[in-house]
């Protein structure tokens, strides 16, 4: 079972609100499908479009990006992607010790993403990502939501704040805080998806 919570900015009513449909996020999701659709085409089913007028294009693949699990566009037009390295990590895995948020940018203004950098790293079981128009980035892990900011415009987050924490005795790399969605406007809010938490009680603070 999945439930959802809403964190208003500033505090206010959020009952029965629906997360907005974000077209750019939808396009990014299609890009993610393309990114993970790799390998021998005879051994792996390729994604296909179900609607006319859309185009599916491979924008990145291994080794540029590894195990992408969520993405969003920031105000600069960069594609931010969570690169998961900690979810059921094998003992022999030799990748980074923590998850990373990778930034894919258009470096020469030709409309194509061509330059990778690391925006943030250091979390575990990182699953959700959302961006605000003022530059704030929200990252959800299994037990918390972080607000990340790049205060000196060097392309990396240098300020982080835990704005939501899941208090529980359950320990598992998912089934807690998961997807997040930012809503701008007069009723600014952050929608948070929460799993069944292994059936254990929890408090979202």
Structure summarized in a few sentences:
This protein is mainly beta and 205 residues long. It is built from one helix and twelve strands.
Number of strands: 12
Distance between the termini: 20 Å
Helix-strand pattern, N to C?
A: EHEEEEEEEEEEE
Derived structural class: mainly beta
> Uncertain regions: pLDDT < 50 for 5+ in a row?
10-19, 37-42
What report would you give on this structure?
The two termini are 20 Å apart. The chain is globular. A hairpin with a 2-residue loop joins strand 7 and strand 8 (144-149). The longest helix has 14 residues, at 23-36. It has one helix spanning 23-36, and strands at residues 3-8, 68-73, 79-83, 99-105, 115-123, 126-131, 137-141, 144-149, 159-168, 177-183, 189-194, 202-204. The chain is mainly beta. Helices cover 7% and strands 37% of the residues. Strands 6-7-8-9-12 form a five-stranded antiparallel β-sheet, with no helix packed on it. A four-stranded antiparallel β-sheet has the order 2-3-4-5, covered by helices on one side. A three-stranded antiparallel β-sheet has the order 1-11-10, with no helix packed on it.
């Amino acid at each position: 079972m999945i439930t959802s919570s809403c964190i208003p900015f500033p505090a206010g009513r959020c009952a029965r609100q629906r997360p907005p449909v974000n077209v750019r996020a939808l396009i990014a999701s299609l890009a993610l499908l393309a990114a993970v659709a790799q390998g021998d085409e005879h051994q792996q089913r390729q994604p296909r479009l179900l609607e006319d007028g859309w185009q599916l294009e491979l924008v990145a693949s291994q080794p540029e990006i590894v195990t992408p699990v969520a993405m969003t566009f920031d105000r600069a037009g960069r594609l931010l992607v969570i690169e998961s390295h900690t979810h059921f990590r094998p003992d022999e895995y030799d990748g980074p010790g923590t998850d990373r948020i990778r930034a894919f940018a258009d470096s020469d203004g030709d409309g194509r993403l061509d330059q990778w950098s690391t925006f943030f790293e250091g979390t575990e079981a990182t699953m959700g990502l959302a961006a605000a128009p003022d530059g704030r980035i929200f990252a959800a892990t299994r037990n918390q939501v972080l607000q990340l900011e790049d205060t000196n415009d060097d392309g990396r987050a240098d300020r982080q704040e835990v704005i939501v924490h899941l208090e529980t005795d359950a320990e598992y790399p998912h089934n807690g805080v998961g997807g997040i969605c930012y809503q701008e406007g007069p009723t600014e809010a952050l929608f948070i998806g929460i799993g069944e938490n292994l059936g254990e009680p929890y408090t979202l603070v």
